[in-house]
Amino acid sequence: MECSWKTVLLLVCASLGIQYTAIRTLRDSLTGPCRGVYHCHSRRHIDSHWRDFCADGWIPIVTPRKHILLFATTRSGSSFTGQLLNQHPDVFYVFEPLYHVQQAFTNYSSRLRRTLDHRVLLGAYRDLLLNLYTCDLRFMENYIRPQPQHHVTNSFFRRSSSHALCSPPVCSGADEPPDETWCPKKCGPLNLTLASLSCLSRGHVALKTVRIPEVRDLQTLTEDPRLDMRIIHLVRDPRAILASRMTAFSDQFRAWKIWNATGRQPRYVDLTQITSTCRDMMASAETGLQRPAWLHGRYLLVRYEDLAFNPKDKATEIYRFVGLEMEDRVRTWITKNTKCNVSSLSEWNYKYSTSRNSKETAESWRLRLSFDIVRAVQILCNDTLALLGYKQVQSAADLRNLSHSLVD
Ligand SMILES: *[C@@H]1O[C@H](CO)[C@@H](O)[C@H](O)[C@H]1NC(C)=O
Ligand SMILES: *[C@@H]1O[C@H](CO)[C@@H](O)[C@H](O)[C@H]1NC(C)=O
Ligand SMILES: *[C@@H]1O[C@H](CO)[C@@H](O)[C@H](O)[C@H]1NC(C)=O
Ligand SMILES: *[C@@H]1O[C@H](CO)[C@@H](O)[C@H](O)[C@H]1NC(C)=O
Ligand SMILES: *[C@@H]1O[C@H](CO)[C@@H](O)[C@H](O)[C@H]1NC(C)=O
Ligand SMILES: *[C@@H]1O[C@H](CO)[C@@H](O)[C@H](O)[C@H]1NC(C)=O
To answer: Which residue ranges does the record assign to the Sulfotransferase domain (predicted)?
Structure first.
């Protein structure tokens, strides 16, 4: 009811054809419960292809629409954390949509790639995020290869990780709970128009990415009047990240594995990747902790270890931050996926498995990494470890002694 005058106002605005730039100045008066309505009506005159869907009663969404970004780095526990959001019935979740952008850009000849300004790629990333937050999944067609025909594709990266993309109306005949192998087989090709409609029909959008280096790169999105961003910055002990990458991407980390097995550091081992991971993680955390105005109320720093050691409480905190109720389905999922018995650990080798005893796997790196490597990472990442509250170890005995906590 309290929405109606705003709705009327917006309808009037839309019909008068007031420019989007004029709407921008209304931003502050529109942060109330009409956000979802605003979302659709404001798009109406800038983006005519949604007009019919909006008019057809897909909208209004009365609750304020949240645009959630799980901002993480490779092997920092983001698949697991993303599932916490994916389980919410009113959240439209996509696992790493930027994969397609990166693929499209890196397929250029190497000469072109070298001259490609990093900012161009970041611009394309932000552009895609914005379009997904406003539920235009067909925008992905610019990047998906092979090019989708008639807005339908078989090549949507990790579609199975998204509940919405594996259940009605996107996937009919979905009578079982989706899982990794089940969805692409049973659901057939993905209709991106239907996916967009499914997105519009859900109240909130959550995206996970590991491809944006620093939170500062997201400033234009947090300031965009069409969005109400909530950034969950997921960090993890860099020593654990390294151990996990060595297991998941063993070809790429062959030199590290030789180092780990022999105790001798090969000269060609690449220290730059873990160094830049640490640098980016620290730069973002510092930015967040400085509380700049553009991040106000929009940034939450989460240590994966805290989530793994205490999943229910930490998940509650995340849900409070994004402003959503933690539904029963989320609670059930947590219970099922954090207290698994040892046999579920055999899934560990699967690159993106999330089903695991969360505490045990969060600490398993301490038994799988040589002290020599741990010491090297501690030197490369000492400031990051200190800022995020991860303790250094001074001996192999301390490293292996799991009663000795390394998380402040
Ligand atoms: C990259 O280029 C090759 C050859 O032109 C093509 O077959 C392939 O589909 C392209 N991949 C992507 C992701 O664009
Ligand atoms: C995709 O879904 C839309 C909306 O339901 C429908 O109009 C269209 O025919 C579908 N496309 C294909 C190729 O099935
Ligand atoms: C562990 O899980 C497996 C499969 O989920 C089950 O067969 C087994 O009985 C369980 N073991 C224990 C000790 O709970
Ligand atoms: C490192 O070596 C130990 C044995 O020395 C092995 O158990 C462990 O799995 C190795 N870690 C990785 C990440 O390969
Ligand atoms: C990290 O190492 C550098 C160089 O050795 C040193 O200057 C700095 O004080 C160290 N930082 C912490 C937090 O120990
Ligand atoms: C392991 O760590 C705990 C806590 O710091 C300590 O009390 C205990 O003596 C350590 N055990 C060994 C074998 O060093």
So the answer is: 66-387
Which among 159, 365, 345, 355 is positioned nearest to 245, based on CA atoms? 365
In this structure, the residue with its CA closest to atom 4 of ligand 6 is 404
Is residue 5 within 8 A of residue 34, CB to CB? The reply is no
pLDDT tens-digit readout, 8-38: 444 333 433 333 333 333 333 333 333 333 3
Say yes or no: CB of residue 341 within 6 Å of ligand 3.
Answer: yes
| CB contact set of 156 (below 8 Å; sequence gap of 6+) | 140, 144, 165, 190
Which candidate, 167, 154, 155, places its Cα nearest to that of 202?
Answer: 167
Each residue's pLDDT tens digit, 256-284: 999 999 999 999 999 999 999 999 999 99
The stretches of 169-298 forming alpha helices (DSSP H) are 182-187, 192-201, 219-222, 238-248, 254-262, 272-289
Structure confidence by residue, pLDDT tens digits, 176-226: 555 556 787 888 999 999 999 999 999 999 999 999 999 999 999 999 999
The DSSP result for 278-311, as a single string, is: HHHHHHHHHHHHT--GGGTTTEEEEEHHHHHHSH
Query: What pLDDT is recorded for position 153?
Result: 95
What token pair was written down for 399? Answer: 């490293």
Does the CB atom of residue 400 touch ligand 6 within 6 A?
A: no
Alpha carbon distances (Å) from 118 to 42, 125, 368, 369? 32, 11, 35, 33
Helix axes 254-262, 371-380, angle to 10 degrees: 130
State how far the alpha carbon of 73 is from the alpha carbons of 33, 191, 209, 282, in Å.
33, 29, 8, 12
DSSP label at residue 379 = H
The residues lining ligand 2, judged by C-beta closer than 6 Å to any ligand atom, are 150, 152, 191, 193-194
pTM of the model: 0.82
Number of the ligand closest to the Cα of 200 = 2
Q: Is 217 left (phi over 0), alpha (psi -120 to 50) or beta?
A: alpha
Instruction: Decide the pairing of beta strands 299-303 and 152-153.
Output: unpaired
Whether residue 225 is preceded by a cis peptide bond, meaning omega within 30 degrees of 0, is no
Strand ranges for 62-158 from DSSP E: 67-71, 91-95, 152-153
The structure tokens listed for 215 are 């939170």
